[in-house]
């Protein structure tokens, strides 16, 4: 099954421990220069948990994601009228594809949260940055988080984990490939369906990047790097950081 198709149904319960409110508070600070009703793009919005919090701050938010199932959950959870688009990003298609769907240079800022950037492998990272740049106005901000090498090697590594949460249970098996710098996640889900459990399987692949690679892709796409901090704080990232928060600014805009 494609990534985030089986997982969509249980995603919000699986991520119940994520600090979305803390992330939104950090973003509020990062976007302090924006007008109250500025237009934001939630790139890889998933089920829209952060989208909803950003909307709650007064921003007008558009969500984009590749997964039909995740977007279905987002549409059910978000206020009617929230624009949601199914777009597969980072592919070899034209860089303008995202902009043509959501409006070229139409957004004041973009976000991409909870490890989504790690799904863009190799040249996919540059293509993602180019696509996001095309949807931002000159001077617009792009804040994203990214799992570090330390997280992929030391936390995910070759580990196994799982839990039984009553109406669903999961088994997560990880395979680290040092040459490719990727972790392959083999995920098995059992979701209660009446008196029985339905089994679903997904495979995800995440890659880590060096600072130089992210900076180089950002520059090629027309961004400057404003900051790299530790996990939605204002503390600079360190070699021990597991999740970094990057703030980029699209060139231009005086
Ligand atoms: C870990 S979830 C994060 C969702 C949301 N941002 C959050 O914070 O909960 C990763 C999301 O990235 C989306 N995604 C992964 N690769 C993608 C791609 N190439 N294009 C668009 N969306 C993608 C998945 O469908 C999924 O919804």
Describe, in short, the structure shown.
The chain is 27% helix and 34% strand.
Structure description:
This protein has 254 residues and is an alpha/beta fold. It folds into two domains: 8-147 and 210-250, Vaccinia Virus protein VP39 (Rossmann fold), CATH 3.40.50.150; 150-207, S-adenosyl-L-methionine-dependent methyltransferases (N-terminal domain of TfIIb, Single Sheet). Helices cover 27% and strands 34% of the residues. It contains eight helices and eleven strands. The strands form two sheets. Strands 3-2-1-4-5-11-10 form a seven-stranded mixed β-sheet, sandwiched between helices. α6 crosses α8. The site of S-adenosylmethionine has 19 residues, from α3. Residues 4, 15, 44-46, 49-50, 65-67, 70, 88-90, 113-116, 119 line the site of S-adenosylmethionine.
């Amino acid at each position: 099954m494609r990534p985030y198709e089986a997982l969509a149904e249980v995603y919000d319960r699986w991520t119940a421990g994520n600090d979305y409110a803390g992330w939104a508070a950090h973003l509020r600070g990062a976007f302090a220069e924006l007008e109250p009703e500025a237009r934001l793009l939630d790139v890889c919005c998933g089920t829209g948990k952060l989208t909803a919090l950003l909307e709650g701050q007064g921003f007008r938010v558009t969500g984009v994601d590749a997964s039909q199932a995740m977007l279905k959950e987002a549409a059910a959870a978000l206020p009617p009228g929230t624009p949601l688009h199914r777009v597969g990003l980072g592919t070899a298609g034209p860089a303008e594809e995202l902009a043509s769907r959501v409006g070229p240079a139409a957004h004041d800022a973009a976000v991409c949260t909870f490890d989504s950037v790690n799904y863009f492998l190799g040249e996919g990272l540059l293509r993602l940055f180019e696509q996001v740049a095309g949807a931002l106005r000159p001077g617009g901000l792009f804040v994203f988080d990214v799992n570090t090498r330390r997280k992929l090697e030391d936390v995910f590594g070759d580990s196994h984990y799982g839990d039984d949460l009553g109406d669903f249970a999961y088994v997560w098996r990880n395979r680290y490939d040092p040459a490719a710098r990727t972790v392959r996640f083999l995920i098995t889900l059992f979701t209660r369906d009446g008196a029985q459990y339905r089994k679903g399987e997904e495979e995800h692949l995440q890659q880590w990047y060096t600072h130089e690679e992210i900076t180089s892709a950002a520059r090629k796409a027309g961004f400057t790097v404003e900051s790299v901090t530790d996990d939605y704080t204002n503390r600079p990232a360190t070699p021990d950081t597991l999740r970094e928060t990057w703030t980029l600014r699209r060139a231009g805009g005086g």
